[in-house]
Amino acid sequence: MKLAIIFGGSSYEHEISIVSSITLKSVLKKTQKIFIFVDSQRDFYLIDENDMKSSFFSSKEYLKKAKKLSLSKGAFETKSLLGTKKVEFDVALNLIHGRDGEDGKLAGILEFFDINFIGPRVEASVISYNKLFTKLYAKELGVEVIDYVLLRKGEQKEIPFSYPIIIKPLRLGSSIGVSIVKSEDELEYALDVAYEFDEEVLVEPFIEGIKEYNLAGTLADSWYLSIVEEPKKEEFLDFDKKYLDFSRDDKVQEAQINENLKENLVKNFKQIYNPLFKGAIIRCDFFVQEDRIYLNEINPIPGSMANYLFEDFENLIEKVATNLHKEKKIDINYLYINNIQKAKGKA
Amino acid sequence: MKLAIIFGGSSYEHEISIVSSITLKSVLKKTQKIFIFVDSQRDFYLIDENDMKSSFFSSKEYLKKAKKLSLSKGAFETKSLLGTKKVEFDVALNLIHGRDGEDGKLAGILEFFDINFIGPRVEASVISYNKLFTKLYAKELGVEVIDYVLLRKGEQKEIPFSYPIIIKPLRLGSSIGVSIVKSEDELEYALDVAYEFDEEVLVEPFIEGIKEYNLAGTLADSWYLSIVEEPKKEEFLDFDKKYLDFSRDDKVQEAQINENLKENLVKNFKQIYNPLFKGAIIRCDFFVQEDRIYLNEINPIPGSMANYLFEDFENLIEKVATNLHKEKKIDINYLYINNIQKAKGKA
Asked: Of A291, A293, A246, which Cα lies nearest the Cα of A271?
């Protein structure tokens, strides 16, 4: 199997997507792979594996050395004087974090152009990218979420929580624009920061000392679930730290939790995953307080694909790639138009 | 202003999209326009205005006579021996009903390729295309919806409503796969029909004699709202009748309702519309029973754009086209990568 790793994108997480893809280059040792870069202008480039270093992108060397690709049905293509040539691969892996990758655009493009891919489909992308939709969906499935209010730029609304609270732009990942607000006099500044990134923000109570557990997995021919990790946390992971987090490839320690909690985390994960996230390897971040489990967020394209949480990540990619669900073919037979024309002919 | 009407698509509503576009050809008399057809294979074709007849598509004449288009940044292009040539237009109108058009794929493609368009964005598409998401979203905004249960193929679940009930595939428009079920012995067949189209279906109580009102509109430089229509109904519009419905261009009678109800319909419409549906002209279909208003569905690309509900539809298109909101540009400066490289250099 040959894998095409698509990364970059017009996204605040463009750079961490580069870091993620470089990490996967070393993690996926046995897998044949190629790399497709989406630059800030949303042009596609075929990147030679030897050029997969961060400086190749930050220096803009790719503009001179890499081949530009165009997209056509079923393929990315290179162009030369001799015509166009299809770039050969079996399955793409959507590794664009944030906008373009996680907001449903790339999913829509790849489905429309009939390119097999690992990653969330359009609906799954929208539900996980928008933190309000995530909450509505989870609640509908009986998965608890932390209480919240939605604020819109310019709108005055009472915040019904006592401080500290947490302010999050509605649509970004990787903690960008997120603030913990300890008292009312810090609120305005925190809102200004969040509104820089999104015209809608979510406000939640910030619960000190709440436990956090991450669980990743996928449903291919059967369920493949990772170990449960209790991520290290400072009061709050800032972007620099998160950024380094995306280059992780060391296996982590399994969280020391009882079987009952573990089973319940798995139950909640499966409830969220199936069937909406089929085709994707996702990581769900949960909060736990006094045995109650809350879904914090769904990462449909986690940093470096959360490879460090799996026993045999390379096998996992293979399993997902060979069990992808294709869109249903729709037969268009022009029955209605023909009938109408017949009816008109008789009139 | 030159408008590019995009229609067709790999959709059960492919044929009614053709009907819609032919209708708009005659409705938009003063507007300069071109037509881009997406065939069942998802190839793009530039259609000459004189060829905009249903037989041109049903006979597959377009395969011989129309120019194939490819998509590149900011443009659709024709290819010839002399090279590629950009197809000139200012704004596209997404007129693909159902899959591809209303499920977020085309929105994702047009945004990614930086083509201005009238139509729902990716999030708005997903929320209106999936009837469960529509309900969750409406409820969150305080807009009432008819009670429901979600069923999945193969799943046994008690239906908590008395008959008659209505069965709907979760993701289709235009009444496809929808049945009214009068008693339990009709249920299995109706579910089989619905599962032909979607693996998830919604079950609702069917409320006899409920009033239905449609209201269309958009928010451009200001609000533009249509008259309220009380659609003619037989017990139920079947697909053939709906199909003819998409060719409507006669102005309709305003529904005879009191000011209070009208105001409340408008209030609910605006609540649903803003800000999620900006850029689109949508039609909301409401049910009313004893002064309670329920959102039945959101049509983010209504048949023939609900032109017949507006006083001056041509002006409306112009207003929307000139007030489109562009995606935020994201500045990618490689600050993090450069910092890391600097840090490494010093180490």
From this structure: A293
Residue B105, classified by CB atoms within 10 Å of its CB into exposed (0-12), middle (13-18) or buried (19+), is buried
pTM for the model: 0.95
| Model confidence pLDDT, tens digit, residues B144-182 | 999 999 999 988 888 999 999 999 999 976 678 899 999
Total residues belonging to chain A:
347
| CA-based nearest distance A125→chain B, Å | 9
Q: Is A347's pLDDT higher than 50?
A: no
Rounded to whole angstroms, the Cα distance separating B37 from B45 reads 5
Contact, B53 vs B22, CB < 8 A?
A: yes
Q: What are the beta bridge partners of residue A41?
A: none
Domain with CATH 3.30.1490.20 in chain B: 149-205
Give the residue on A whose Cα is nearest the Cα of B130.
A123
CA triplet A333, B99, B217: central angle to 5 degrees?
Answer: 120
Q: What CATH class does A149-205 carry?
A: alpha beta
CB B56 within 8 A of CB B47: yes
Q: Please count the other Cβ atoms lying within 10 Å of the Cβ belonging to residue B277.
A: 25
* Chain A residues close to B151, C-beta within 8 Å: none
CATH architecture designation of domain A2-119: 3-Layer(aba) Sandwich (3.40)
Q: Dihedral, CA atoms, B46, B52, B53, B59, nearest 10 degrees?
A: -10
pLDDT digits (tens, 9 = 90+) for A70-121: 998 899 999 887 888 999 999 999 999 999 999 999 999 999 999 999 999 9
Q: Give the closest residue to A184 by CA, choosing from A201, A159, A207.
A: A159
E strand or H helix at A296 = strand A292-299
Q: Quote the tokens at residue B78.
A: 């024709």
CA distance B231 to B262: 15
Q: Which two tokens stand for residue B213?
A: 């009102």
pLDDT digits over A194-209, tens only?
A: 999 999 999 999 998 8
Cβ A136–B137 below 8 Å, yes or no? Answer: yes
Arch. (CATH architecture) of A126-144+209-321: 2-Layer Sandwich (3.30)
Contacts of A341 in chain B (CB under 8 A): 54-55, 58
Contact, A5 vs A36, CB < 8 A?
yes
Q: Can you give the pLDDT at residue A8?
A: 98
DSSP readout, B139-161? HHTT-EE---EEEETT------S
Region for residue B200 given its phi and psi (left: phi exceeds 0; alpha: psi -120 to 50; beta: otherwise)? beta
Classify domain B126-145+209-321 by CATH number.
Answer: 3.30.470.20
The ipTM estimated for the assembled molecules is 0.94
Contact yes or no for B321/B249 (Cβ under 8 A): no
Q: Where in chain A is the domain with CATH 3.40.50.20?
A: 2-119
For residue B201, the cross-strand partners are B151, B169
Residue matched to tokens 């409507």: B248
Query: Rounded CA gap, A57 and B333, in Å?
Result: 11
Cβ-nearest to A112 among B42, B55, B336: B42
